[in-house]
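fyi for ur records
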Amino acid sequence: MGWLIIFTAFVLLVFLPGIWVKFVLKKYSRPVDRYIGQGNGAEFARHLLEKFNLTDISVEQTDLGDHYDPIAGAVRLSKENYEGYSLTAITVAAHEVGHAIQHFRGERLFRYRQWLVRIAMIGEKVGSILLVGAPIIMLVARIPYLSAGMLVIGFGSMVISAIVHFVTLPVELDASFNKALPVLEQGKYLQDGDLPHARKILKAAAFTYVAASLAGLMNLRRWITILRR
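which gave:
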């Protein structure tokens, strides 16, 4: 019974943030034409970039989720937010431009985040390789302790990745509430009554990576199942 409670709590911890993020972003993506007179997400992002003299930063559509790429110098938006005229579209665009502002200003937390994210990406790749390799090593070398060690190291790498996203959460919150929100408020871009909803969207945008990395931990259950076969 105790293990069931612990497992249930773990599943809730892993999945609820992601469910909440998706719910909030989807909820305020309607009506789709709420800001049609102001421009879509891509146009709004370009407007904000010009406002802060970041004309070298491009705005691109992506299938990899909304993000700012500091290496390419690009604000990348999902198709829905790139072409959309919803509250979610313009608010998410403002959040990603917030990261561009952090980068342009050379803010210490942003530089620290980029370093940690690179570590997290390496950790995820190493973890995936080790988790795939563990059952192969067990079958070929027939050294169960070695495969178990690889499993532990692989899962540890994925846990570190999740922790990194938690550690860098202040950078996401800064992009939302110290960069995007003041711009939205002071520029009077939002329609009456939309500010509280925009705050929810900005919070969801900040927690997107945390939610995704938590969900990735559930891969462990699949790998344990494979190793037991």
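The chain has a mean pLDDT of 81. thats all i got for now
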